[in-house]
Amino acid sequence: MALGAHSPEKVILETRRRCAGTTSPFTELISGFLVDGDMLPNSYGKQDCSLARALEIVGERWTLLVLRDAFYGVRRFNDFLAHLDLPRTVLSNRLRSLIEHGLLVKIPDAGHSGRWLYELTDEGMALWPALYALRSWGERQSGRQPRMFTHDACDTPLDATGRCETCGGPTGAQSDLRVTAG
Ligand SMILES: [Zn+2]
């Protein structure tokens, strides 16, 4: 199949041709993206970048939505499953990864023997401003009518960073957030 004039494949192949036999920071950077068959690797392991590090942890499909539900107060496996409507195995993998990276913690569910509750750690809670900003950005991209988030306990709208100006929250899962059309 012919490659388009500016397709990523053509750019990479052309870069390889021009850089053949030379070494430079640029060729090392490019080679960091390439594996056999010019396939892009499925991890950012060679990227010395804080954003890449963050994406290693939360960049997989569904992960941010699992965290979003955790922020909205979802704690049980079956509730995540019902809200997100994703394959059980995928949810299980995402929860395990978030626990391994210290964003969630698993504690016994006192109301259901043998079951677990998934709760945000302080490190997980630290993602709220980023998640809130990404949500706001997505809202603008979709052209949807903006929604206003209000901290119910304080009756205070969240600011642009997702914080309640009255109490400085969130300080836990936000089952007490009120969402209204802006
Ligand atoms: Zn508040």
Overview of the structural elements:
With 182 residues, the protein is an alpha+beta fold. It has three domains: 33 residues, no CATH class; 76 residues, Arc Repressor Mutant, subunit A; 39 residues. 43% of the residues lie in helices and 12% in strands. The protein contains eight helices and five strands; from the N terminus they run ααααααββααβββ. The strands form two sheets. It has a three-stranded antiparallel beta sheet, with no helix packed on it. A hairpin with a 4-residue loop joins strand 3 and strand 4. It binds zinc ion. Zinc ion binds next to loops.
Short précis:
The chain has 182 residues and is α+β, with helices and mostly antiparallel strands. The protein has 8 helices and 5 strands. A 3-stranded antiparallel β-sheet has the order 4-3-5, with no helix packed on it.
Strand residues, percent: 5-15%
* Number of β-strand runs: 5
CATH C-level category of the largest domain:
Mainly Alpha
Helical run tally: 8
Shape, please? globular
Going by CATH, what is the homologous superfamily of the largest domain? Winged helix-like DNA-binding domain superfamily/Winged helix DNA-binding domain
Decide which structural class fits the backbone.
alpha+beta
Number of domains: 3
Cross-sheet strand order for the largest sheet: 4-3-5
The low-pLDDT segments are 1-6, 10-38
CATH architectural group of the largest domain: Orthogonal Bundle
How far apart are the first and last residues' alpha carbons, in Å?
A: 49 Å
Query: Helicity range of the residues?
Result: 40-55%
Largest sheet: 3 strands, antiparallel
CATH topology type of the largest domain: Arc Repressor Mutant, subunit A
Global Rg: 21 Å
Name every ligand kind in the structure: zinc ion
H/E series: HHHHHHEEHHEEE
Oligomer: single chain
